[in-house]
Amino acid sequence: MGKEPRLLDRVRAAIRTKHYSIRTEQAYADCIRRFILFHNKRHPVEMGKAEIEAFLTHLAVNRNVAPSTS
């Protein structure tokens, strides 16, 4: 039996089934990658609300991303 696809491969497949643009796919994959790296490469399935809030706070405070953007 084959190995289960990696997280970002599954995300890309799901985005493609919705016919989003390649730029949107790249932006979503990049954001997910940054979220994972921010949390020291923990898998998102291990995280919850607190980690999401910490990442969004990091974006707003340290990366000057507007709350409506993040």
TrEMBL record:
Residue ranges of every copy of the Core-binding (CB) domain listed in the record: 2-70
Pfam family, one: Phage_int_SAM_4
PROSITE patterns: CB
MF terms in GO: DNA binding
Alphabetically ordered keywords of this record: DNA integration, DNA-binding
One BP annotation, GO: DNA integration
InterPro entries: CB (IPR044068), Integrase_recombinase_N (IPR010998), Integrase_SAM-like_N (IPR004107)
Protein name: Core-binding (CB) domain-containing protein
Organism of this sequence: Candidatus Thiodiazotropha endolucinida
